[in-house]
What does this fold into?
Amino acid sequence: MDKALYAAAQTALKNAYVKYSNFPVGAALRLKNGEIITGVNVENASYGLSNCAERTALFTAYAKGYRKEDILEIVVTTDKDYAVSPCGACRQVMGELILPDAPVHIADAKGNVTTVKNKELLPHAFTEEHLPR
Ligand code: THU
It folds into this structure.
């Protein structure tokens, strides 16, 4: 995993808005053009409306005009001594917005990393292929 990418995610998580869980998460995407785009979890008093760090980063990238072909890899990290794996909602979104073979790095606060391919996170996913044309 790219060290600058991990550092960006660790720095970003300090801005997590986690009033309810007190569980900051940071995510960072590395793009083909060298740009790094970060995201954090942003919570809400209506808990279900909270947005995870991975989706914040991805929606930011797409809002800037980037698409899946532009994204090389993603890291998700916390301030804990254990790593967290993307939730089901994020796996669904990542399945559509990141290429299947792109690496997903799951890293703890010490820098220990587990890497999987995006496509490994959500087998038998519902995709646009299932929608009638
Ligand atoms: N969370 C993330 O942002 N990413 C993950 O991969 C797992 C969970 C957030 C959602 C919520 O704000 C907090 O962590 C506790 O569930």
User: Anything to note?
Assistant: The longest helix spans residues 53-63.
